[in-house]
Specification:
This protein has 462 residues and is of the alpha/beta class. Helices cover 43% and strands 14% of the residues. Helix 2 runs parallel beside helix 3. Bound molecules: adenosine monophosphate.
């Protein structure tokens, strides 16, 4: 087993690594760092949680420790798809370069140009940026990229999803072709393959296990539900979500709740708050200071529920999240893997729960195909035994809760839940494991025959 000392990194970096408490390099670090130190291009196929950030920051710091920055000509560049990710990379730089004197600038939207200009004018060793803001600076004539010796593209597949690929190609063109390129992506879509073929030269390819296969510590489940009317679906889901959270009681120390659309992120967070839950939204339309404050609160344990869009939450390193709730089934199966990867990190246990309506079945199938496993079904906690999944009264239930129940505070809520459905949950798990596919857990002998059919089968029933 390689240890950090074998990697020939600058002793001051090794000291910082030791202080960070790392004992040995992760597989992506073992693969990428030696190649990067040799000056080779690296193509890293890995996602957050694998230690990939250090796999490019450590060799960069080592290289940058020699030499000095010149005004307006950064010596290295890291491109990230979101502001939060860029900020996270910047934090990594601070941690690992704390015994060296390196300068950095973070160019992200939502922060004034003036401050960023000042830093660039002074000269920086590392420029960490989102593509849009970087090009804004370039077009204002404040920045030259001809001094870039090392360029990193982080989370390239997310860049692709966000439509940043043309910007990335343009930025590649503004840097010297002699630069070293370290390129990271969780997946290799054809468009990503094309970019790497165009801009990387003889890269060392380092691929680490996908989280889909490594996430044994995550207990997954899905609630299949159906609301009579499409316009009641959101409300039905919010009811189910609260019931799921309540059923977890104190086991749910904190959670990220993923929605597909920004508007649903807002609605869901508002609804949770209204019902006495400690929740806040995070998505790309919120201003930067709000996003940072929400995220910091969540990291510090002051905020219990973070309601997020994929873009805002992608790649965020939040070490201990007990639960992930998929309020919506993601339309892209890979996103499911990223979402649930927020929990069960570093060997800790985590739970990932999802809600799926009949019209999500295609996306659910795609996820299960990707996972090569069926996600265990969980009984709809809102439906009663007499009132099966197709609950017509979900909206009413929500109304009733709002108007007739006093709002419990968090402690009371969790306390109350302690004797409630925990055993229920266990039963569900056992039932899920023991019963064949078509069984609806918890219906017992009262199970109406149509419920035993899959949603697709029910659709074609007369
Ligand atoms: P990343 O994949 O870069 O988001 O890193 C995920 C987490 O792993 C971060 O909290 C890092 O601080 C941590 N980490 C990075 N390298 C190591 C290592 N060699 N040993 C233990 N933890 C690490």
């Amino acid at each position: 087993m390689t240890n950090f000392a074998d990697l020939n990194l600058n002793p001051k970096i090794l000291k910082a690594i030791k202080e960070a408490g790392y004992s040995e390099p992760t597989p992506i670090q073992q693969g990428a760092i030696p190649a990067a130190l040799e000056g080779k291009d690296v193509l890293g196929i890995a996602q957050t949680g694998t230690g990939k950030t250090a796999s490019f920051t450590l060799p960069m710091i080592h290289v940058l420790a020699r030499g000095r920055a010149r005004a307006r000509m950064p010596r290295s560049l890291v491109l990230c798809p979101t502001r939060e990710l860029a900020a996270q990379v910047a934090e990594n730089f601070d941690t690992y370069s704390k015994h060296l004197r390196l300068s950095k600038a973070l160019l992200i939207g939502g922060v004034s140009f003036k401050e960023q200009d000042l830093l660039i004018d002074r000269g920086v060793d590392v420029l960490i940026a989102t593509p849009g803001r970087l090009l804004d600076h370039f077009e204002r004539g404040k920045l030259l990229l001809t001094g870039v010796q090392v360029m990193v593209v982080d989370e390239a597949d997310r860049m692709l999803d966000m439509g940043f690929i043309p910007d990335i190609e343009r930025i590649f063109g503004l840097t010297p072709f002699t630069r070293q390129t370290l390129f990271f992506s969780a997946t290799m879509a054809p468009e990503i393959e094309r970019i790497t073929n165009t801009f990387l030269s003889g890269p060392k390819r380092v691929e680490v296990a996908r989280q889909a296969s490594a996430s044994e510590t995550i207990e997954q489940s899905v609630v299949l539900f159906q609301s009579k009317r499409r316009d009641q679906e959101g409300s039905a889901k919010r009811n189910i979500l609260r019931a799921l959270i309540d059923a977890e009681g104190e086991n749910c120390t904190n959670a990220i709740i993923f929605c597909n659309r920004k508007s649903d992120v807002d609605t869901c967070a508002k609804s949770l708050k209204k019902h006495g839950y400690d929740a806040s939204p995070i998505h790309g339309d919120l201003d930067q200071s709000q996003r940072t404050a929400t995220l910091d609160g969540f990291r510090d344990g002051k905020l219990q529920f973070l309601v997020a869009s994929d873009v805002a939450a992608r790649g965020l390193d939040i070490p201990s999240v007990s639960h992930v709730f998929n309020f919506d089934v993601p339309t892209n199966a890979e996103d499911y893997v990223h979402r649930i990867g927020r929990t069960g990190r570093a060997g800790r246990d985590g739970k990932a729960m999802m809600m799926s309506a009949p019209r999500d079945s295609k996306n659910l199938d795609a996820i299960e195909k990707l996972l090569r496993a069926e996600i265990p079904r969980l009984e709809n906690p809102v439906a009663t035994s007499k009132e099966p999944i197709a609950s017509a009264s979900v909206e009413e239930t929500e109304q009733k809760q709002v108007h007739t129940q006093p709002k419990p505070n968090l402690r009371e809520r969790n306390g109350r839940q302690r004797n409630k459905p925990k055993s229920n949950n266990k039963d569900n798990k056992q039932n899920n494991a023991a019963k064949p596919d078509k069984t609806v857990v918890g219906m017992g002998p009262d199970l109406p025959s149509f419920i035993a059919l899959s949603f697709q089968e029910r659709m074609v029933e007369p």
